[in-house]
TrEMBL record:
<comment type="similarity">
    <text>Belongs to the UDP-glucose/GDP-mannose dehydrogenase family.</text>
</comment>
<keyword id="KW-0560">Oxidoreductase</keyword>
<dbReference type="Pfam" id="PF03721">
    <property type="entry name" value="UDPG_MGDP_dh_N"/>
</dbReference>
<dbReference type="InterPro" id="IPR008927">
    <property type="entry name" value="6-PGluconate_DH-like_C_sf"/>
</dbReference>
<dbReference type="InterPro" id="IPR014026">
    <property type="entry name" value="UDP-Glc/GDP-Man_DH_dimer"/>
</dbReference>
<feature type="domain" description="UDP-glucose/GDP-mannose dehydrogenase C-terminal">
    <location>
        <begin position="335"/>
        <end position="433"/>
    </location>
</feature>
<dbReference type="Pfam" id="PF03720">
    <property type="entry name" value="UDPG_MGDP_dh_C"/>
</dbReference>
<dbReference type="GO" id="GO:0003979">
    <property type="term" value="F:UDP-glucose 6-dehydrogenase activity"/>
</dbReference>
<dbReference type="InterPro" id="IPR028359">
    <property type="entry name" value="UDP_ManNAc/GlcNAc_DH"/>
</dbReference>
<dbReference type="InterPro" id="IPR036220">
    <property type="entry name" value="UDP-Glc/GDP-Man_DH_C_sf"/>
</dbReference>
<dbReference type="GO" id="GO:0000271">
    <property type="term" value="P:polysaccharide biosynthetic process"/>
</dbReference>
<dbReference type="InterPro" id="IPR014027">
    <property type="entry name" value="UDP-Glc/GDP-Man_DH_C"/>
</dbReference>
<protein>
    <submittedName>
        <fullName>Nucleotide sugar dehydrogenase</fullName>
        <ecNumber>1.1.1.22</ecNumber>
    </submittedName>
</protein>
<dbReference type="InterPro" id="IPR036291">
    <property type="entry name" value="NAD(P)-bd_dom_sf"/>
</dbReference>
<dbReference type="InterPro" id="IPR001732">
    <property type="entry name" value="UDP-Glc/GDP-Man_DH_N"/>
</dbReference>
<keyword id="KW-0520">NAD</keyword>
<dbReference type="Pfam" id="PF00984">
    <property type="entry name" value="UDPG_MGDP_dh"/>
</dbReference>
């Protein structure tokens, strides 16, 4: 086949929905995408190096709370979806999507080793006519300057003629009700025009709005801009929280007032620090890359500095409030309410609650946590707390010297929980002070 007939052939298979898709990495991003394509009529295999995940998925079970097992079971039983650990099956796929992790290293440098390893696995099996799309968040240039050479050198095939390559950032927001994988618009940038066209054709099968851009680098950069925007704005309100606190002004009330302006303002909310797989990490992909070009991304670094100082600020507010109650942090019983980094999800990645627990414990407090989404803490790359969640009840909360509200789970909004609790440090503005169940409670916003 000629290069244009490779592209035409793939385009025809996509239009006829007879194409098959392999999605590498079946985590928070890869799994919903795989199910969406399967539900849209394509044949999908989900590849993962984690055997336990592969078995779990093929048995129709879920390991992510917001993805119901029914969805997985239906996709498996219909024959549209199957998980596998066998990379040789990639040879049968028309398109291969890469959704592997992109962590930061110990010195906050990007770690693209998962992308490179996956690229090498694909390269040895790459066939003419296949489309490869990278979805993992990364710095600009990764697709064209790192992945493309790995694929070409490992396969002997040429990009743009034999195979096609694009980047499309993932905008998955676990727990969100108003948008889902199908309705979140998808930005797509190929390393050449034909790759963009084919990637747009593929995503259009399953996604309502696909937005082509002129290059993979623009698509890579768009994802980083989105997350830097969030990080910087969250840092801004976190800093203003400390400024207004010194003036005895409630930042939450200020935000409510400001957001009545119908244009030119978008509310962001303070908290005990940044969490999740994206916002605390992704901005540093760009600041690292910027340095290579002799540029310093000062907003990114400053926002990182402010946001990472928030757990310490909450701890100092807790210490001051305990002091007002005639107590020291040392030997005080403190309950951290919430381990998840955001409300109503079972995701504790990079959660500031870990920092709070660790910092309070290191000052001699007797710290427990409560989170209905996490019966016990699991070891992470950084933490191994070995704690079990205490039961959520007013009786339990009253038995602590202080309760630090770290996550705005719906379960924690029941005001009767806080009746008679001596001291509540609320970082999420969910506990009412006036007219609530108990007048003896001291409420400190932090
Ligand atoms: N979680 C989110 O909400 C989110 C949102 C937008 C973008 N992202 C980005 O998407 C990418 C994936 O994130 P995630 O949250 O899905 O991660 P995850 O850890 O939930 O899933 C990654 C999966 O890849 C598997 N894996 C690791 N190495 C592999 C390899 N060599 N071959 C096959 N499988 C492998 C792991 O076992 C795991 O199941 C990251 O770049 C992340 O920054 C995540």
């Amino acid at each position: 086949m000629t290069n244009s007939s490779h592209a035409d052939h793939l385009q025809d298979r996509l239009l006829a929905r007879s194409a098959s898709i392999g999605i590498i990495g079946q985590g928070y991003v890869g799994l919903p995408l795989a199910l969406l394509f399967a539900e849209s009529g394509l044949s999908v295999i989900g590849l993962d190096t984690d055997d336990a995940k592969v078995q779990c998925l093929n048995a129709g079970r879920s390991f992510i709370k917001h993805i119901g097992p029914d969805r997985i079971r239906e996709a498996v039983e219909s024959g549209a979806y199957r998980a596998t650990g066998n990379f040789d099956e990639l040879a049968e796929c028309d398109a291969i999507l890469i959704c592997v992790p992109t962590p930061l290293g110990r010195h906050r440098e990007p770690d693209n080793s998962y992308i490179h390893a996956t690229g090498r696995e694909i390269a040895t099996r790459l066939k003419a006519g296949q489309l490869i799309v990278l979805e993992s968040t990364t710095y600009p240039g990764t697709t064209a300057q790192e992945l493309q050479p790995i694929l070409e050198e490992g396969s002997g095939l040429s990009c743009g003629t034999d195979f096609f390559l694009a980047f499309s950032p993932e905008r998955e927001d676990p727990g969100r009700g108003d948008y889902n994988t199908r309705t979140i618009p998808k930005v797509v940038g190929g390393v050449d025009t034909i790759s963009t066209k084919l990637a747009v054709a593929m995503y259009s099968i399953a996604i309502t709005k696909v937005v082509p851009v002129s290059s993979a680098a623009v698509a890579e950069s768009a994802k980083l801009l989105e997350n830097i925007f969030r990080s910087v704005n969250i840092a801004l309100v976190n800093e203003l929280k400390t400024v207004f606190d010194a003036m005895d002004i409630d930042v939450w009330e200020v935000i409510e007032a400001a957001k009545t302006k119908p244009f030119g303002y978008m509310p962001f909310y303070p908290g005990p620090g940044l969490g999740g797989h994206c916002i605390p990490l992704d901005p540093f992909f760009l600041s690292w890359k910027a340095a290579e070009h002799g540029r310093w991304a000062r907003f990114i670094e400053l926002a990182g500095e402010i946001n990472t100082s928030m757990p310490a600020w909450v701890v100092s507010k807790t210490a001051a409030a305990l002091n007002d109650h005639g107590k020291s942090v040392k030997n005080s019983k403190i309950l951290v309410l919430g381990l998840a980094y955001k409300p109503n999800v079972d995701d504790d990645r990079e959660s500031p609650s870990y920092e709070l627990i660790s910092e309070l414990s290191s000052r001699g407090a007797l710290v427990d946590y409560c989170d209905p989404y996490f019966p016990r803490t699991a070891p992470t790359r950084k933490w191994n707390l070995g704690l079990e969640s205490v039961a959520l009840s007013n009786e339990t909360l009253r038995s602590y010297d202080a309760v630090v509200v770290a996550t705005a789970h719906e379960e924690f909004k029941d005001q009767t929980l806080y009746a008679g609790v001596p001291l509540v440090i609320d970082t999420r503005n969910i506990v009412l002070s006036q007219g609530s169940a108990d007048v003896d409670m001291t409420l400190v916003k932090a």
